[in-house]
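Record 1 of the preview.
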Amino acid sequence: MMQHNMLYLRQQSLNDQQVHIKKKNLRMLIVFLSASANFGNAFCGNSAAPLQREIQNDMNIIETDFNLLFSIRGLSNLFMPFLIGTIVEKFGFKYCLMLLCTFCTIGQMFFAIGLSLHNYHMLLMGRFIFGLSDSVSIFQQTILCYWFEPTQLPFVFGILLFMVKIVRAINDNVASVYFNATGSLASYFWIGFVVCLGSLISAFYLTTIHESVCESTQSNATREKEQELKQNQQKDLESQNKDSEESSNATPKKEKVLKEDYVYLLIMYMFGFSVIISFYPNLSCLLQERFAYSNEDAGHVASLPYLIASFATPLFGSLIQKMGESQYEFLLTLSTGLIFLTQMHFTLMSDAIPTIGNVKTEPNNMAIIPISLFGIGHALFVTLQGPLINKTITDKSNMPKALSIMKVAENIGGMFLTFIAAYVKVQTNSFIGVHMLYALFTLIPTVLGYHFIIKLNRKMENEKQKKTKDAISDGNNDDIELEKQSLKAKQSLENSPSVNDNSDEEIKTEISISDSTEMDCISEDDTSKKSEKNRD
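->
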């Protein structure tokens, strides 16, 4: 099936109708390949979180050292998004995505070797290399923006996130069960290495299909446009002698990425993702320490947010698609507010009560409620990211740059908050201060989103008022022009010489006619008098 698709895409000359048909037939395959290209990053990215206690005991490290494994992953990803643009321009879309998936595979290999050799520094090196692959999501969203219409993107992103979250939920459920069954840490991470190899193969097929259908037609279209522009410029130079300033003004200006609306989104997603990225690595340890769960039960409960998010993202995608673009900002603020409430709920909850004697402590199952709400907020928050950026950035050529900048901001927030949360936990020996810290970081985007909604509403009202004023002014101008035209018509009629001459001639003829009639009347009177005299 895959070879048939590859042979089918070897055509070089494609018209618009053929491209549309190919896109329509290959869309579901593109969605699956886009998701599977990120399976390795999704499976291995948080694979250490359910086994936090086991890794700390095996490697003889503390919680700050464990969280440093996640912080250094974000550190490496600070530089990669800035290099993506130049790499894509020099080597192409295909080789850039293949390079990122290769980093994912090599990083996981070093991490598994470090666990086998009990070498903490090799663990750090493996996580640093692995963090370079976090930019795979940039290519996922960029490719889907080329293959689908803007109205279809919310549902498509929901399907994509559904498959990715399912893989992460499988990791959380299987990790502790596998360790309890085998007693080996390193072998489980070698399984993750195999998953990374599968993602590398999917990335190859994904980029090959994308280059065959989209990029070839875009290159031909850009060449035709450049030829048309050159011909038009030559015609203009032959007909008119234009200045260089006019020619520069004729060229279209590129859209700026760092617009005001994009900056709002950048700050909101930086603070929101910092909490999400930092919360998941500590969730299993939180459930074991505060609420007395075993390692297997903690892994099952910790997978609830991923399971809920995996099934909720397609539903949210279709819901967002029906509600329209005008409600995106409100739903984003709602998602951050929901995450804020979950963290406040954790601060108000009581820990599991230890029992007396040898009786096992019963876990506090009320922790499932805020964890489930966190999964809903996370699903809505992530589903809105792609459609919001697509709404804000109208020029699709700026999409990789916009997504890269946002990815860097997310990594900065997640890197610092993960390390700070571990430091607060070690200093206070409690998770209450950590939850308060998370609540503060989610309160900031919630307040900012509320201000953003007010700003957009004022902007829409001002645009409506301008439209009404323009319509009224256009109507008044039409009335004034009609009055001017009627006045000109009257003046032209009054001042026209032909009309005056005709009126004078008519008056003269009337006077002459009246004079003639009077003379006739006088002559008749004289004749009648003479005849009477003769009779007498």
